[in-house]
């Protein structure tokens, strides 16, 4: 058929009643050759073009309507772009059968249908057999939908509310049967352990307290494997060693937790430090590399390792990477040892400093004392000299200048006598200052001697 | 709609050099593509393509263009230099126009076409009139009247 006939084809069918075969969920894997290149689903009503390419009818017609130039009789095949004017509905039966045989889930899976059917049978399954299909309520005034299996045989509306005779709850009529059978909280239920009959709504509370329920020991998290009836658990717990230990365990657990927290913090800090170290190392490697290239002449080896590598230039080039890492570690160790040495030196310096200042203080104390002594001695000597000088001065002014004519020789003799008998320091200080001013008389020497 | 099913099917297997960067919704996807051979122009680079799917995809073509992520970000994505790629990321490729598109094309096939377009290129230049186009173009990509004169690249 030509294009116009083909495009007219799809208007016939009713899209509402049909299952959308492309939306189905495929259970089995299928060959990708069975896949329409446009919609990537197994072919739905396949159509064949002149160039033997096959597409779904719907895909092909939408492709034709968009890509055909206005009202021309030809359009390019979506796969090979061959101009095509004829569409054939006859595709191999094999292809259709393989597509129809793919296992799919019923489209009403959400409503509860568990059915898996071949794709070819989905339409009839939905139309006739699936009880979970939503159908409009038979009562025209009700606009709700209901599952097909819930329909009342008399075609009555099942959406009215009905009060449960046991629990006084309002239940929609279509759910009433299920509620009455299983869900109603006022139903009676039997406890599986003690075989007491309780109400459905109390069952949960009962199982929490039922003395017959087998429950584990309270120390089960610490390794007690004993499980006994709840009535006997108290007697067990009195003797269970793990119960006695449990406060200890609990304390240990909290300690472990806090330790883990600390470890995590420390790990984070450690990572930060390692990052910093790696940065330092990389900068060191850079500088070491620069240093190594500078020393290609083979002199100035830092350590024996480098000295060896620098012996032969070829070998040196080969091992430059190892040298750089060695140099780095060497530099790092050098740096460390230097740091230690500097530390020791600074210690020694402070030590010496303290000792020197102590010694200086001791020495200066002694000197101060000595000076004080000397000062005192000097003062006493000065007083004596003054005392000695006073009568002399008096006498000198009284005697006047008569003695000026006395012979120099006698004067000299008296002075030498004075020098020998008195302290040398005293004569030195007093002698020269007094001697030339006032000549002495020979009789003075006797008085000097008695005083000292 | 089957188009969304078709798109989600692609996520299961992607060809080499192509990775899905973002596919949260079925309206816009971002793909990372790499040029696999050793073309020096595109070596060690990853580029990001943005696909915008219309409601009629795959019957109508998606809008495809390169987008740029800043070089300082975690995933630097420049816009490749190519005589058919404008510096705002718009690609001049007839496959992406309404006339050149075919509903058989997929996201993978478009990515692979762009990969091969980059691979075959040896010219380190932008299209003629790139700066004018970038500063004056305000049209949507599909409305730009490209002239596909060059069949070599």
From TrEMBL, chain A:
Residues 97-142, 179-233 form the TRAF-type domain. It comes from the Eukaryota. Residues 249-276 form a coiled coil. Keywords: Coiled coil, Metal-binding, Zinc, Zinc-finger. Residues 441-452 have a biased composition (Basic and acidic residues). The keyword Metal-binding applies. Residues 36-81 form the RING-type domain. A zinc finger (TRAF-type) spans 97-142, 179-233. The keyword Coiled coil applies. This is Zinc finger RING-type. One of its GO terms (molecular function) is zinc ion binding. InterPro entries: Znf-RING_euk, Znf_RING, Znf_RING/FYVE/PHD, Znf_RING_CS, Znf_TRAF. It comes from Penicillium alfredii. Residues 295-321, 396-452 are annotated as: Disordered. Residues 402-430 have a biased composition (Polar residues).
Automatic annotation (TrEMBL), chain B:
It holds the Pfam family UQ_con. PROSITE patterns: UBC_2. Gene3D superfamilies: Ubiquitin Conjugating Enzyme. The keyword Cell membrane does not apply. The lineage of its organism: Eukaryota, Fungi, Dikarya, Ascomycota, Pezizomycotina. This is Ubiquitin conjugating enzyme. Keywords: Ubl conjugation pathway. PANTHER family: UBIQUITIN-CONJUGATING ENZYME E2. InterPro entries: Ub_conjugating_enzyme (IPR050113), UBC (IPR000608), UBQ-conjugating_enzyme/RWD (IPR016135). It comes from the Eukaryota. Residues 1-153 form the UBC core domain.
